[in-house]
Amino acid sequence: MNREPNAQLISLMDEAGVSNKGLAKRMRDHAGQRGTSLGTTHVAVQRWRDGAGIQAPSAVIMAEVLSSKLGRRITPGDLGFFGQPEPPAPQPVGYPSSVPDMLTMLEGLSEERAEPSTSGGLIIADAELSSAVLSWMVARPDGVQADRPASQRVGMRDVRAIRTAADMFMQLDFKFGGGHGHKALRHYFRHEVLPLLSASYSEKVGTSLFGAAAEISQLLAWTAYDSGNHRLAHRYLTSTLRLSQVNDDRMFGARILSNLSHQANYLGNHAQAIQLARAGVEGAKGKATPRAMALFSAMEARACSNANDLIGAGRAMNEAERHFERADTAEDPEWLGYFDSAELMGELCHCFRDLKMRRESVDHAQRAVDDTDPKYARTLGFCRMVLAQSQLLNGELESAVTTASLAVDGGDSLQSARFQRYVTDFQTEVSVHSANPTVSAFNDQVHDALARLDDE
């Protein structure tokens, strides 16, 4: 059925003198100022101009952006979106009940592109999330079906190849952001990894194979999250949580719960973030190395800090540091190799920033910046932005803008919606000093960096 062009939207955009790209950027920036993530692109704006429907949160943000541009109140109805759109319904968690269901879900997910979502945040029903967490906590391992008849036999060489690919894609993710390698990774997962799970293998190989597949699936979730597609990321994470149940990998399952906590915290769902982080900590006890427990406790601290729970955050930070003191006393899996002292400092500086503990925030952020290996470009960018925000908390405007400028210089090629939000959040915080030449120059720098990113 052919749609009619949205004449009202087209007219108001013409009146405001704003292009498709310009409106998309203003919407993303405005959403960031409100503490939410929006992945609107010029392609989405063109679809709306052509008459496509729009989600309620996006319509409200568009109306507010154009209201500010035109100097008068604009409603979604004025934009041609008649009536009040229904608020987004909570998304089902979809925790697979069986291995075949899980594999079917992962195969379907691997066909979806990780384009930034235009629907704003992600709403997950508390009851469904609790049910998924409980299912994982009390589940018995499925176990691998060893030596079944199949046309293909899998060996440890195949498993090593998958782990090598996982490491390669992880390095690309750290350096260039999640948007860079997701397409190639999902193609590899769909065509090279998933078919092996239905092949023939020994019990030892099968256990390792499912572990390697979980690492790729987790990375697909993370790259989708970093690209701004939170629905896809969440579905990958819940499927990967179920995948960890096959070979009873409680430490990796706890890592997935920590990732879910990280995402919920980012989206402002602080109660869920705390629940998920604590489930990871409790579910991993006696099954995880000290380094892993430090990571899980750090995620709990992050969630508590964002919820302004000073006591809970302090206790979790202390636990993270105590675990990390014993980090070298056990052999860690390869996927945990990135979590060094600089990474821990990076997590803790976020906590101190969110708790408005100015001195501790600057100290930990500076240590994180100084110690982070440049190959972890995105992490270094995050830490620099937290250092800039911490310096701003201390009233050091010039130092803060200089630090943020360094972050943008090093991160303008990052295809990371999360990094871009750190930058827009900082721009909002310094907007009261917009007349300051240093702040004005920084805003111009960000504009140019985003323009270069679009060109690339």
Give your account of this protein's structure.
The chain is mainly alpha-helical and 456 residues long. Among the domains are: 7-70, no CATH class; 92-248, no CATH class. It is built from 20 helices and no strands. The longest helix has 25 residues, at 203-227. The relative contact order is 0.08. The model has no long low-confidence stretch (mean pLDDT 88).
Write the layout of secondary structure elements.
Elements: H1 7-16, H2 20-33, H3 42-49, H4 56-70, H5 99-109, H6 126-138, H7 156-176, H8 178-197, H9 203-227, H10 230-246, H11 250-266, H12 270-284, H13 290-306, H14 310-325, H15 341-354, H16 358-371, H17 377-393, H18 397-411, H19 417-429, H20 437-455
Task: Give a short overview.
This protein has 20 helices and no strands.
Question: Which key phrases capture this entry?
Answer:
456 residues, mainly alpha, 20 helices
H/E element sequence: HHHHHHHHHHHHHHHHHHHH
Low-confidence stretches: none
Report the sheet-strand fraction.
under 5%
Share of helical residues: 55-70%
**Termini, distance in Å?**
35 Å
Large-scale geometry:
globular
Radius of gyration equals 23 Å
Class computed from helices, strands and strand pairing:
mainly alpha
Specify the number of helices.
20
Work out the number of β strands: 0
Arithmetic mean of pLDDT: 88
In this structure, how is the largest beta sheet organized? none
